[in-house]
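Dear Dr. H.,

I hope your travels went smoothly. While you were away I took the liberty of generating a structure for the chain from your last submission, since the lab meeting agenda had it listed for discussion. I wanted you to have the full record in hand beforehand rather than looking at slides cold. The sequence, exactly as received, is reproduced here:
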Amino acid sequence: MIEQIRLEQAQALDAFVQAHPRGHFMQSSLWGRVKQGWPWTAFLLQDERTGEIRGSLALLRHDLRHLPGCCFFYAPRGPICDDAASFRALVEAAAGYARAHGAYLLRIDPEISETDTGFAALAAKMGFHINQAQDFSLFQPRLCYLSDLRGKDAQSLQAGYRRSTRSNIRKALRGPLTVRRGDRDDLPAFCRMMAKTGAKNGFTPRPRSYFQALLDGLGAHARLYLAELSGRPVAAAISVIYARTCSFCYGCSEEAGDKLHANELLQWEMQNEAIALGCERFDFRGVEGPPEESNPHYGLHRYKQGFGAAFTAWIGQLDLPLRPLLYTLVEHLAVHRFHF
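The corresponding predicted structure, in token form, is as follows:
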């Protein structure tokens, strides 16, 4: 039995996602409150006899600003389920809903390993196009680093780090830096440092309003950390704790913080707090390209490897075209950098 869920009636869905081994904050109603410009709806799959929830799929709707009346639906890190029958049922319900609203595409990107050939075959049979790009062109990073926190404490956690990373953290701990939890009032400083980090690394930061919505929408699940030098923020990070996973989402710093290893210190603090709160894994989020020294982006790999994290490749971004001709047109325009 499939039930459609609105944002204000998502308590059972959130409880299911929070408890599931592959639960993710982006599949909760909290993410619907963060993404205010993307209308949210969801589907619950329940056993008809017992009423037990077998799966869920939360969708965001996005209207293309340059093509009036054209939209797609996106399930970030969804669906959440355990078997092929549940996956098929949830996708069919979501696709039917999306078609009824004139959408040209249903997009998903579940946290399923690229080595799961059975799932890949099922998705292809259902009509999904699987995009396994190795850069940041996908909606969510496909290539990530994860740390297993189960059974860890501060001592065993640091023992798993590379020697250079342990040394940098010890220097930071002995130095003049202090770390504290921040709130909305610290966002001006956070955004100032994010602008500097973006200029240095060649990306355009999100506006302050987005980070306000992130902290407000996720509530206690979102944590802003600041490393300070004589009371002045020199580095900051935002993590999200949900479904026994701590996800590092954003980090920024300025030169004074870099010299004092403030970023490593913040990672150390976030991971220790995650352990204290019962998290089982730490998600360092995305990287580009393979974990090989010939990769020009290998520096970020090396940084995350320093914390003992393991390279992980997810299945990719899966597109189910609902209006194939329009899908082909939009994809062609996107390739030629027509921004939506």
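Two observations you may find useful: Residues 84-100 form the longest helix (17 residues). DSSP finds twelve helices and 15 strands in the chain.

With kind regards,
E. W.
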